[in-house]
Amino acid sequence: NGLTPDNSVKGAHCTAKGRIVFLFTAHCDLDDNLILQTHPSIVDIAIASLKKYAVFFKTEISDVSAQYTCEEGHSDQADLIRLRAGIADVVAETSEMFIPQMLNLDALGYISFKKGCYTGQEIIARAHYRGAVKRRMHHLQIAASQPPKPGSEIHSTEGRTIGNIASAAQVDSKTVELLAVLADKSS
To answer: What span, in angstroms and rounded, lies between the C-alpha atoms of 62 and 143?
Structure first.
């Protein structure tokens, strides 16, 4: 109800197990159509996921990307700015990998703990009220000539998996900054 052409809302569409399928920014156009903006790699996944619910609401879901001007690709600078703000994109490779609190979406205002029912609410609320989030996103800098792919595993010096890459951006030819979801005991 709070959406207008001048006001947007950030959110996440989750599975029943509380895993993020995709992140979005919701806009409303002048005809009261709801427009969800998401990462380009996940548009087909988002549409397929939402179409399961469309029949219950007698609504149509379609890809309107072509109607909007988008930059070709993502600029490294825009990725770096978003990363430094602590915001990770959920992309095709990381869809259904993280619960919202792992990406710190609770601290970024993405989650309402007062809103009525939503898919995954029980898991997300339980993690919030019990403080049971054992993995959180952290900002790291590494020496590398290329950013690792989102979803890549991070290993300890003993070879144990301790986390996953959420987002990464090249700073210069020798430096990469990344957002990584790490187990609390390894951070």
So the answer is: 42
Nearest to 100 by CA among 111, 116, 114: 111
Cα four-point dihedral sign 152, 87, 140, 133? negative
The predicted-structure confidence for 84-110, as pLDDT tens digits, reads as follows 999 999 999 999 999 999 999 988 888
Span between the terminal Cα atoms of the chain, in Å: 40
Q: Using alpha carbons, select from 100, 97, 131, 91 the residue that is nearest to residue 11.
A: 100
Global model pTM greater than 0.70: yes
Q: How far is the C-alpha of 94 from the C-alpha of 22, rounded, in Å?
A: 9
Position of tokens 């939402």?
A: 50
Confidence of residue 70 (pLDDT cuts 50, 70, 90): low
What is the enclosing helix (H) or strand (E) of 20? Answer: strand 20-28
Distance, in Å, from the CA atom of 95 to the CA atom of 78, rounded to the nearest integer, reads 21
Secondary structure (3-state) at 184:
helix
Q: Retrieve residue 32's tokens.
A: 């009261």
Which parts of the chain fold into alpha helices (H)? 43-57, 76-84, 121-130
* Cα(128)–Cα(77) distance, integer angstroms: 33
